TrEMBL record:
Cross-referenced PANTHER family: MEMBRANE PROTEINS (PTHR35519), PH DOMAIN PROTEIN (PTHR35519:SF2)
Organism expressing this protein natively: Stieleria magnilauensis
InterPro entries: DUF4112
Keyword field: Membrane, Transmembrane, Transmembrane helix
Name of this protein: DUF4112 domain-containing protein
Length: 120
């Protein structure tokens, strides 16, 4: 398998993962979307820690795709912000719905890869 095919396959998995974690479900009659990150984050004490650990998978994929150190640091920051502020009772649950760290990280990675292909 060519290197680019492997990157495309991994990027497709990253998009699917981010969608499941941040955008999978919709509130009926609205444009409000949320995912497993928001739902699991409702569990007091362990929810946000669990979703942060799961979010590290996406960062691992970015590392395996040789994302730059700057991109990896920004991705870690997004997960840290999500886990820290998401842990605040009630307000943190609303923040989880808004922040969507997995979606942010998927977009960061995709933009980085597109730039890397454009500027070999």
């Amino acid at each position: 398998m060519s290197q680019w095919k492997d990157v495309e396959r991994r990027l497709a998995r990253v998009r699917t993962f981010a969608g499941l974690m941040d955008d999978k479900f919709a509130l009926p009659g609205t444009r409000i979307r949320f995912g497993l990150d928001t739902l699991v984050g409702l569990l007091p004490g362990v929810g946000d820690a669990a979703t942060a650990v799961v979010g590290l998978w996406l960062i691992g994929e970015a590392f395996r795709m040789k994302a730059s150190t700057g991109v990896l640091i920004r991705m870690c920051g997004n997960v840290l912000i999500d886990a820290t502020l998401g842990a605040v009772p009630i307000a943190g649950d609303l923040f989880d719905w808004y922040w969507k760290s997995n979606r942010r990280n998927a977009v960061l990675l995709e933009k980085h890869l597109q730039k890397r292909v454009a500027d070999p």
